[in-house]
Fold this protein.
Amino acid sequence: MVERFFQDLTVKALQRGVFQRVKSLTQAIDECLEAQNKKPKPFIWTASVTEILEKVKRARQSLHMTPQK
């Protein structure tokens, strides 16, 4: 869920921004969080445990099939 949080933050506040100072970057982050907190939405997990474990299994198989240097 942490990855999802940072993805949303990036898309909503940072993706097309140009920040020449740390202060302007932190201000953009703060404004995004304030707006999000005004109308919060719960995160609803839609994948089942079985689906997640199948993806992990496929990823491991792919890694083992890749030639190692």
Remarks:
- The two ends are 33 Å apart (CA to CA).
- The chain has one domain: 2-65.
- DSSP finds three helices and no strands in the chain.
- The chain has a mean pLDDT of 87.
